[in-house]
Amino acid sequence: IGYGALLAASDPSIADGFVQSPLDTLALMLPLWYPVPLLAATALSLLSGIALTLYSGGFALQSIGVRVPRQWATAIVSVLLGGTALLEKADLSKRRLYELPAATYFHTGDAWEDTDGTIRFDVCLASSPKFGLSGARDLVKGVYNAGNDEEAHLALITLRPDGRADMQATGVSSEFPQTDHRFQGLRRDRVVHVGGYIEGRLGAHALSAFDWKTGKAQTHDFGPDAIVEEALFVPRPASHGGTGQEMDGWMVGTVLNLKAKATELHVFEAKNLSAGPVGSWRSAHATPLGFHGTFA
Predict the structure, then answer these.
(1) What are phi and psi of 243, to 5 degrees?
(2) CB 3.0–4.6 Å: which of 58, 84, 109, 186 could bond 73 by disulfide?
(3) Burial letters for 56-78: b for 16+ Cβ neighbours within 10 Å, e otherwise?
(4) What is the Cα–Cα distance from 248 to 264, expressed in whole angstroms?
């Protein structure tokens, strides 16, 4: 703008030209080859900005608990920005469009791709965004408003190469899904999550597992005096009989015991949550809730 003002001030005919037809006037003053590097620089700047936005969005998704490999986190951001589209990471000009029932979510399990290109991932879906819009904001301020809470339920999303999309709803109360991290990006069956919510009270009171192959669930309920946080999977080492099979290991997580006013640590056999903890420890005091089991 400043350069244009100086040009206009240097010659009345240029000033008149800028008023009548600024682009034509400027073009007459520049060499014929000038638009080529100008357009190239503009295009590269736009592409760089888009790439940085998508990649940063992938980091942001992983930081809030979306547990997918980096390339799929970036692809999901592309979906959100592109309007229900799945972009090929090797060629962003290739995309798939999908339609699914309206819902909102914070957390997904690990995604995997079948040999035919079908992509599947589990997700905790809520019917309303009110918790994200106001409930979470109030919670950060130390205020819990039950009217702004929304219970999420476990579902499996299937995105097929031909553009069809399926949502397998379970009706199972669910948040903070965790899987065997050794199977990230690979076909798997099990997901572990918290669940069981009491109306008018913050937090879950149960640790559950769902098997997509059998459709069966198992749960350990800590009772109404507990707030259960995200549990993490710890694989059983080969030196202690580990087989490397999915979920051969333990789930380790913290629980706030409201009655005892203390934080507890519990260890479960990952394949047998309903049997209860195989080991437990109670702190001398309550520690602040973190909800997630790990942070970046």
Answers:
(1) -100, -15
(2) 58
(3) ebbeebbeebbbbeeebbbbbbb
(4) 23
Q: Dihedral angle at the C-alpha atoms of 67, 72, 78, 82, nearest 10 degrees?
A: -100
The answer for residues whose C-beta is within 8 angstroms of residue 100's C-beta and 6 or more apart is 84, 157, 165, 167
- Nearby residues of 240 by Cβ (< 8 Å), 6 or more positions away: none
**pLDDT computed for residue 49 by the predictor:** 57
Asked whether 164 and 153 are in contact (CB, 8 A), the reply is no
Give the other-Cβ count within 10 Å of 19's Cβ.
10
Structure tokens, 216:
């069966």
Is the separation of the CB atoms in 231 and 192 below 8 Å? Answer: yes
Query: Mind listing the pLDDT tens digit for each residue in 58-68?
Result: 655 555 555 65
Whether the Cβ atoms of residue 267 and residue 245 lie closer than 8 Å to each other: no
The answer to whether the beta carbons of residues 196 and 204 sit under 8 Å apart is: yes
- pTM flag (> 0.85): no
